[in-house]
Amino acid sequence: MRCRRILTLTAFILTFAASVNAADVTGKWRTEFESQIGPQKYTYDLKSTGDKVTGKAISDQRGEVEIKDGVTKGDEISFVEIANIQGNEIRIEYKGKVSGDEMKLVRKVGDFASYEIVAKRMK
Q1: How far apart are CA 55 and CA 48, in angstroms?
Q2: I need a surface site. Which of 35, 51, 58, 86 has the fewest CB within 10 A?
Q3: Distance between CA atoms of residues 10 and 118, nearest Å
Q4: What whole-number distance in Å separates Cα of residue 104 and Cα of residue 35?
Q5: Do residues 89 and 3 make contact, with C-beta atoms less than 8 angstroms apart?
Q6: pTM of the entire predicted model
Q7: At 32, which CATH number?
Q8: Which residues, 6 or more positions from 96, have their beta carbon under 8 angstroms from its beta carbon?
């Protein structure tokens, strides 16, 4: 019984420590970049809860979609946007680092393209 309590307490402490060190990305972030289909403008409306990230990716061209699989670990962030492009669902993966009010991300669009982008927190 005592061992189980110690293991539960240890798991709680590790979970709490991981969430304390996670970057807080709550807020709206804006980016503009060139892609194979021309200029792109995005706003990411994100919310951090511990190491989990939720929110929306809002494209000036395609509207908004829910963020999936959002996670922060220290200053690292990753999340997924599922885009509907010409009737096909395309997985767009984002991975990068957060530094204050700036996120440097690699945006991987399915197996088609990859871009380095910078998103800045809107004030």
Answers
A1: 9
A2: 86
A3: 37
A4: 16
A5: no
A6: 0.80
A7: 2.40.128
A8: 76, 77, 78, 103, 104, 105, 106
CB contact set of 57 (below 8 Å; sequence gap of 6+): 42, 43, 44, 64, 65, 67, 81, 92
Full domain range(s) for residue 45: 2-121
Identify the H or E element spanning 39. Answer: strand 38-49
56-109 pLDDT, tens digit each: 999 988 899 999 999 999 999 999 999 888 888 999 999 999 999 999 999 999
Task: Using alpha carbons only, give the angle 56, 57, 62 rounded to the nearest 5 degrees.
Answer: 125
Contact 67, 57 (CB under 8 A): yes
Q: What is the enclosing helix (H) or strand (E) of 85?
A: strand 76-85
Neighbouring CB atoms inside 10 A of 63's CB total: 10
Number of Cβ within 10 Å of residue 38's Cβ equals 7
Q: What is the mean pLDDT of residues 10-29?
A: 67
Residue written as tokens 């509907």?
84
Query: Domain count of the chain?
Result: 1
